[in-house]
Write a structure and sequence with these properties.
With 366 residues, this protein is α/β, with parallel strands linked by helices. It has helices at 14-33, 38-52, 61-70, 88-102, 143-154, 197-214, 249-261, 296-311, 325-338, 350-360; strands at 74-76, 84-86, 114-120, 124-131, 167-175, 177-184, 219-225, 229-232, 267-274, 280-283, 286-289, 316-320, 341-344. It has three domains: 14-86, Orthogonal Bundle (Arc Repressor Mutant, subunit A); 119-173, no CATH class; 176-360, von Willebrand factor, type A domain (Rossmann fold, 3-Layer(aba) Sandwich), CATH 3.40.50. It is built from ten helices and 13 strands. The N and C termini lie far apart (66 Å).
């Protein structure tokens, strides 16, 4: 028998691990700001290191880059171009980082769906008890309560369990919600020296991670709109960029309504993140544009879609990240027409507003 063999204890390299984790947090933030451009993010990280001494003689940016490769966060670009690109692991890490940053104060909860005040034949066990009814699942029978009833009703000498003795645990319905998130990627989202698209991307990634991990029965579709509107996948969010576009809110709403028509859930909603007024609409094959104030032609079409959403029982919640009074007047008119909600938020509290409204929109009708 060999027994135990003792050797010299070598402590783990905790400092290098701590340095990597610290640099990784910064790197993920830079990747979001550069829309997934690894080379530019690393260049920014080098500049930050020179200015703020982020690294030491023992662990430098070169070591960090090698660790990124070893741990599967970045890889060589396909085609042999010599550059680097993100991996799926980085995309997931960015979404989780966004969830922690935006919704970091959330209480930990198990995976589930939105609870309602209704009880019945749902899929989550409650605390109430009731008599067994034909059609109740056997898994909902409370054996302890049922055995107690049998002993009370028939005595303990000759044990008998009848249907009238059975009790079941009342279950609760859980509402399922289909959400479409619309993100404005018009040029105004980066005008005047203010980066509005990066906070919008972070909130979208956080919301996507929240829904997929904590509300798996809900659906989330993401739309971006500029001159046109198109649907993107969750994995595309880190690479999202602003283009030289006008704001075609009409196209975004039409696409969102078309997506929600195909969803079977009764509970549907639209979240729209924007910083400006609608300035564009499509007429046939050409674009009708007017960036100078509110164009009555575009406005009327937008308000008509707000009415259609209201008739379809699709509330639109607008998150306005601009403070111009006449733009807020437009949002107020749109919200009143749709019977929806509006938040006039700055970039810091955008995430908390969206989460609060998402939680509040737990519908009663299931």
């Amino acid at each position: 028998m060999l027994g135990y063999r003792f050797t010299k204890y070598t402590p783990p390299q905790m400092k290098e691990a701590a340095d990597f984790d610290r640099l990784l947090n910064i790197f993920m933030q830079l990747l979001t700001m550069t829309s997934g451009d690894v080379s530019e993010a690393l260049q920014w990280l080098n500049n930050l290191d020179q200015q703020y001494n982020l690294t030491s003689d023992e662990y430098g940016i070169g070591d960090f880059i090698e660790d990124l490769k070893k741990k599967g966060y970045i890889k060589e670009e396909e085609g042999g171009g010599g550059g680097m690109q993100m991996t799926a692991k980085s995309e997931i890490s960015i979404r989780r980082s966004a969830l922690e940053e935006v919704f970091g104060k959330l209480k930990r909860s198990r995976n589930g769906d939105h609870h309602t005040n209704y009880s019945g034949r749902g899929d989550e066990r409650g605390t109430d008890r009731r008599a067994f009814q034909f059609g109740d699942g056997l898994e909902n029978i409370s054996m302890t309560d049922s055995l107690r009833n049998a002993q009370i009703n028939h005595g303990i000498g000759d044990f008998t369990l009848l249907e009238n003795d059975l009790e079941v645990v009342e279950s609760e319905f859980k509402a399922q919600t289909s959400t479409v998130l619309m993100i404005d990627i018009s040029h105004s989202m980066i005008l005047y020296g203010e980066d509005r698209i990066t906070p919008a991307k972070k909130v979208a990634m956080a919301l996507a991670e929240l829904i997929t991990t904590r509300y798996p029965k809900d659906t989330l579709d993401i739309i971006v709109f500029g001159n046109d509107a198109w649907q993107i996948q969750i994995k595309d969010l880190p690479y999202l960029e602003v283009g030289p576009y006008h704001t075609n809110t009409i196209a975004g709403l039409e696409l969102a309504m078309d997506i929600l028509r195909r969803r079977k859930n009764q509970n549907k909603q639209i979240f729209m993140i924007t910083d400006g007024k609608p300035t564009c609409m499509k007429q046939g094959i050409r674009y009708y544009k007017n960036s100078f104030g509110l164009d009555r032609k575009i406005l009327n079409k937008t308000l008509n879609l707000a009415v259609q959403c209201r008739k379809l029982k699709i509330p639109v919640t607008t998150f306005m990240i601009a403070s111009d009074p006449y733009l807020q007047d437009f949002v107020r008119e749109f919200t009143k027409t749709n019977n929806g909600k509006a938040y006039y938020s700055n970039l810091e509290n955008l995430g908390s507003f969206i989460f609060e409204d998402y939680q509040r929109n737990r519908r009663k009708n299931v």
